[in-house]
Amino acid sequence: MEAWRRRRNIEEFSKGYYGVCAAGGMLSAGAAHLAITPLDVLKVNMQVNPIKYSGIISGFSTLCREEGASALWRGWSGKLIGYGVQGGCKFGLYEYFKKLYGDVLVNQNKGVIYFLSAASAQVFADVALCPFEAVKVRVQSQPSFANGLADGFPKVYAKEGFYGLYRGLLPLWGRNLPFSMFMFTTFEHSVDLMHRKVIRRKREDCSTAQQLAVTCLAGYSAGIVGAVISNPADNIVSSLYNKKAASIVQAVKKIGLANLFTRSLSVRIATVGPVVTLQWFLYDSIKMLTGLPASGGVRRHLKDAELLGFNQAAP
Predict the structure, then answer these.
(1) How far apart are CA 255 and CA 233, in angstroms?
(2) Ordered DSSP codes for 163-228
(3) Distance of CA 95 to the CA centre of its chain
(4) Predicted TM-score of the model (pTM)
(5) 297 — pLDDT class (breaks 50, 70, 90)
């Protein structure tokens, strides 16, 4: 462990620290979302045309038969760049707000701090993501619309103006705010639970492999919870972007209350669980490569090592 501490050359909560978190979030989110592009293409088509694409296996078969295997990678540039930008904002700002709220709300429950930090970060992250998402969803569900971001952005702007790039911001917040709030909070509590009840060791006493194993298990749990919570808003977003409805109220009426929670849920769980796990694994791997500790815990004061979860001894 002393060797691990000596490797640390970036002070926590410095500009360099937040830079590493933002860069780690960008790389991990972009790579993870790129990897599951085929599942995302199927999910969007199941939401837009649930009769034709009624299941995971049959849906993949229909897409490949009618449009070729290359159709599974439609919108990959939007996944890589859009979600990379979103991930940089989300993870970097989450760490910033967690420290800020942890210092201000000294006597507050840690769960409240996680909720507030995740929500604050996600508001900015979705503003960055929204234009990319507007093009990506159209490319994935309308084969003749555009090939990717390069020709998709001008088409959306020419037809609908600036509003077309941000028409889905409110439902995007409706989907991603609860997702992030529950995802980050579930992750944090899962990490704490595993260290206290399963491993029964503090984070600084665990090996790198053990810390990353905890990260992956907590990440998968967080992804499943977030996917279930945010599925209704995800269906509304797809409906609005593909002009199946003119407003959120109309989208809810057309889809149906029950279908909001169940439509494409299976493929969304299959998509979100692994992608969140991969994001956290890559994110914490990048942090640990720079000598920083794995994620988890609230730090309110520099001297409070117990809340942070690792020893604050100087290197």
Answers:
(1) 11
(2) HHHHTTHHHHHHHHHHHHHHHHHHHHHHHHHIIIIIS-S-GGGS-HHHHHHHHHHHHHHHHHHHHH
(3) 14
(4) 0.82
(5) confident
